Amino acid sequence: MRQNGTIKFFNHDRGFGFITPADGGKDVFVHITAFEQAGLPTPEEGAKISFVAEDDRRGRGKQAAQLELA
Fold it and tell me: Is 32 helix (H, G, I), strand (E, B) or coil?
């Protein structure tokens, strides 16, 4: 299910950050590769984005995928 949110934090040196969902749920992890796969520029804090929360391959919870600028 596609959600909207805001980039809360992004560490460019380490290549990851978190998105705060617009519905007020728990922050969702996002990795730089999700932006690369979507063909999006390097994220800036405060940017509006839509995403799909998918299970992390390592079993650590949810992570953002299928990113689009909102």
Answer: helix
